[in-house]
Amino acid sequence: MNGTFMFGEDRFGPEENFAFTYAGLGGCLDSKQVEEIIRLCYNSMALDYENPLKYDDFPQVREVLERVTPNLSAKHLQEIELVVALHELGTVPPPFADALKRLSHRRRLGLVSNLWSRKELWLQELDRAGLLDIFEGLYFLLTSGASSPRLRCLRWLWRRLRLIVFSVRKYCL
Question: Is 139 exposed, middle or buried (0-12, 13-18, 19+ CB in 10 A)?
Fold first, then answer.
């Protein structure tokens, strides 16, 4: 979804100001500390994302934050987790929403997404764009602990859409 029909996402580059986003939410941690925590979290997750041993055991943002900042309060963890999600989230431009709506009138659509953050903000964005109801199946990989589309999640979607699959191996290794 991010980078496919949702854009302005994955804003984790060196120019990003996480402390500004955090302050906008009313957080009270030091800006340098916020930047450091989110960089530690992002770097840890980026390493895990490339690690084949983590493909089916990928941690959620909250787990990584607890690991890299074990002394942070639950309130501050929740605030930082939201900042990470806001920087991962993009928006669906109207022309892309319109194209998907038109496509849904001719084809059955399902969505498989590999978000690092909790799915709620993405569901809100899909709803805002009028897309939430056009998908017959939604599968967020982190709910299964996977970091990239694996055969089991694709099989779930195929069953959900009642699709006939002729050659799974060819496309899903």
Answer: buried
